[in-house]
Amino acid sequence: MIVAFSVAPAVTDNPDAEMADAVTEAIRVVRASGLPNETNAMFTLIEGEWDEVFAVIKEATEAVSKVAPRTSLVIKADIRPGHTGQLTRKVEAVEERLAADH
């Protein structure tokens, strides 16, 4: 499965705290997991089995919650049992079609 998620402070206890600091801690958790992942301006994508992906999302959310009394979490999942490597394959398929147009 591939899961796109976004976790960030909804508010912080410290008005000087940067949202990027909290999000950085969440990304550290994702990268330390060893699961295939990528981060863009709006979401982090992670690929793996249900339990391992959601365990990472929970840990990343807890990391943000340490600096924020209220945390926002958005999740979107592509559940396709038996398929791996889809994090890159989906983009490659589109790029192949775009290249064929030229």
TrEMBL record:
Thiamine-binding protein domain segment(s): 3-95
GO cellular component term, pick one: cytosol
Family label: Belongs to the UPF0045 family.
Protein name, as recorded: Thiamine-binding protein domain-containing protein
Organism: Corynebacterium callunae DSM 20147
